[in-house]
Amino acid sequence: QVQLVESGGGLVQPGGSLRLSCATSGFAFNKHGMSWYRQVRGKERELVASISSGGSLFYADSVRGRFTISRDDEKSAIYLYMNSLKSEDTAVYYCYTFIEKNYWGQGTQVTVSS
Fold first, then answer.
1. Are 69 and 56 in contact (CB under 8 A)?
2. pLDDT per residue over 41-89, tens digit each?
3. Is 93 exposed, middle or buried (0-12, 13-18, 19+ CB in 10 A)?
C-alpha cells in the first residue's frame, strides 16, 4: 500500500535551516506529483510546495525564495530544504500525494524558536 514517511523535523533557531525528507513506497513514484503541506494547531492545513512528475514547481508566497522542494525518483523520495526559517514557519509538516485518493504522511514537527 501507499506509504509516506516524513523525517528531519526538529527545533531550530530563527534564521536557521532544516531539511525534511519524505520516503515513499507502494506506488509508481516517478509518475506522480508530490507536495509538502503544513499545519498549525487550530488552523487549516496549507500547501507549502509542490513538484510534479516532470519537475514543475509551485511555492506558497510565504516560503518562496526560502524553501526548495526537490525529488529523487531513484530513491522514491522528496525533500524540502528550508532556509532563513522564521517563527511563523513553526508547524507540523506533511508529505502528500494523490493517487485516486489523498495520501498523507504522519507529519514531522518543525519548531523555530530561540
1. no
2. 999 999 999 999 999 999 999 999 999 999 999 999 999 999 999 999 9
3. buried
